[in-house]
Amino acid sequence: MLRFLKMLLTKQGLIFVLKKVLLPRFYKRYVVGNSLIEADVNSTFATRGCTSKNEQLSTKFYHLMLYYPEFAYVFFWRIGKGKTNKARLFTTDMNCKIFKSTQIAGGLMCYHPFASVINAKSIGQNFQFRNGLTIGNKGNDNAQLPRIGNDVTVGAQVVIIGDINIGNNVVIGAGSVVVKDVPDNSVVAGNPARVIKTLEND
Q: Per CATH, the architecture of 95-202 is what?
C-alpha cells in the first residue's frame, strides 16, 4: 500500500491517474457506436496478443490506450485531436503524419509509426504498417495517389507512390518501393517491387 501511495506522488503516477480519469470519457464520447474505432480496438488487441479477464470493448480500449502509445496515436488521429495536450499525454513523439484527406477503414494498426507519412486516396480494412512508411503522390500531384485494399500488411521502410492500386490480402516486404499495381493475394518485395509469392485466398 505504501509503495502504491509513493507511486501516486510521482509525476508518472499522477499522469497515470489522469489517464484513468480521462479514458471513460473518451470511450463514451468517441468509441461507443463508432464502428471504425471499434474495429481498430478489436484488431489491435487480437494482433498484439493481449489478454483480459473479460472481452468487453471498454476493457480492451483502456488497456490499449494505457500500454500501447501506437494505438493511442491512431485513436487521436481518428477523432481529429492528434495535436492536443490530451493526445500528448497518451503518446510519445511519433513523428508520423496521416493526411486528413486519407480515408482509412476500420482495423487500422501500427507497430512503430515513427517517420511515416501516409497520403493515400483510400485504405481498406485491417491495414497494418511499421516505421518508415511513405505513401504519397507522384510529381506533387494529389490526383495521383495510391488506393490500397483490405487486409494489407506493410513492412518497415516501404515506399508506395503514385496513382496505383494495391489489391486485397497483400503483404509488402520491408524496404520495398511500390510504383505499379499489385494484384490481390500477393507478397511483393524489392525495388521496384515485384510479386514473389501468391497467397491462398481464404
A: 3 Solenoid (2.160)
